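Sample intake — FAD-dependent oxidoreductase
Collected from: Paenibacillus medicaginis
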Amino acid sequence: KKVLIVGGVAGGASAAARLRRLDEEAEIIMFERDPYISFANCGLPYYIGGSIQDRSKLLVQTPEAMNKRFNIDVRTQSEVVSIDPFNKKVRVQNLELGSYEESYDALILSPGAKPIRPDLPGIQSSRIHTLRNIPDTDKIKSRIQEEATRSAVVIGGGFIGVEMAENLREAGLAVTLIQAGQQLLTAFDAEMASVLAKELEDQGVRLIFSDKVQGFEETAGQVITRLASGMVLQSEIVLLATGVTPDTAFLQDSGLQLGPRGHILVNERMQTNQQDVYAVGDAVQVVDFVNGQTTAIPLAGPANKQGRIAADNVCGLGTTYKGSQGTSIIKAFGLTGAATGSNEKTLQRLNIAHHVIYVHPSSHASYYPGATPISLKLLFDQQGMVLGAQAVGYDGVDKRIDDIATVIRFRGSVTDLTELELAYAPPYSSAKDPVNMAGYAAE
Ligand code: FAD
């Protein structure tokens, strides 16, 4: 059996490793447009900020290691420019070899999503960056290491915008973050996001809300960013983080069904509408596990799981992907915010009847040193089924949201939250854990 994989990072590399485990004989070829495979996208901001010092740590697998360990033919700097599901072939453009065709028995697509670059005047300036991969990271890192680079403007207050604002600040720059909407981090409801926003401000990040970039100009080593309000900002570097769009232009005329925003449509076995073509990761449309709507959730956990499931199905195992619930977490300096399931805005938009409670328990027993409060918001339906949760605090936020994410996965209720028996000793929690407390408050 010959399996081709397009994309060599989260979804693609997971699919490749799983395929090899399931089938020792299969010929597996993985195409990656960039020079690197299997790098730690999620670690890139922290390398720029300096918490990760060693660049080589970002390279989780090299093509050579992947070949040696899994016997996978990894072809970097090889872009798949079109696919032909009718004749079961793809066309590849390689830097040295030029253009050639490769046939397949099964094809797994994991091309990911690319940063949106709005069509604004002056956007071509070499000082305006986006962040997706190692080459982007190298450019940003070398720019901020220049002595003259003192300030940065970050455009967009999503996960990558906030992580980059923090890390550019950590790298010693004066940072201004511009957000078109009224709140940062739309995975959270406004009152929870505002706590994270305050932490950013307390740590010296200047925040500008409800304003939009109109264009840029480059002058004498600086970029001038003009906003709709008339405000003008000057910085040596601009980071654009206004969201991502599926990297699926090469599939336009392939007969593959795409959604309205270019996402590949797949069923629960990650199969596309074309025989033996599978797709996974940021490029696909998924079902929202909580509310059943179609959505797209560009996160690493879902991409890895889907890669594995696609490989299972190539090998006839028939496993299924049951949807994404958007469990996510962000560090804003000392503070952590985490969320899972639907937020209140989404439930309101979809007219789903729900209740909301807030609790503010301590991260661990208050008599043991170092306890800090956690603000926990819980959303549940009329029958008590848990629909979503968000938490912000300095410590222990991750495990509380992970507990609730697990309960949501098993379609559990607020009573289930009260019944969870969780690890407790004073340095870690309380006999009534914050998750139990949320359940009690909700019952
Ligand atoms: P990718 O990992 O993007 O891989 C797709 C690969 O396909 C790319 O390398 C691309 O070059 C290649 N490719 C595309 N088209 C072609 C083609 N035609 N031919 C050949 N190759 C092609 N998620 C989290 O859950 N937590 C985090 O903390 C987090 N932090 C992030 C931080 C940053 C800076 C970024 C950029 C992303 C972060 N993410 C995070 C998101 C996460 O990285 C993605 O959800 C995940 O990588 C998606 O996997 P994928 O396989 O779909 O796409």
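Post-analysis note: Residues 34 and 135 are 8 Å apart (CA to CA).
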